Known about the structure:
38% helix, five-stranded mixed β-sheet, 4 helices, two-stranded parallel ribbon, single chain, Transcription Regulator spoIIAA, alpha/beta
Amino acid sequence: MDATSVSIEQLDNATVVALPGEHDLASAPRVREVLSEAESHGRPIVVELTPTEFMDSSILGVLLGALRRAREEQRGFTFALDREDGSIVSRLFEVTGLFSLFPVYTTRADAVEAASRGVNQPMVADGP
């Protein structure tokens, strides 16, 4: 597996897209392509970020676009990422406020269950 691999896995109730390694502008087209493939299956989508070691703003843009489309289509779309693990990605989500925009679950199983129920909004929105 190279540093910018992207995987897709079909489960009974969702499609899981995993982004292990490091992702930046160079891998953004591949991430976009795999998310588009996942969307074409018509199932809820889970983006597994637990194995992600690094991502830049170009990947965040791709993820925001996919989340927007899921909301428009009323399709479940969640993220698996442990907010407390101290990873670069969880710190990025914290600093940029993405935890208040993205429906993030600590475990893949929880993210799959929520996506299969149609969740595509954060659990708790930040106040004004």
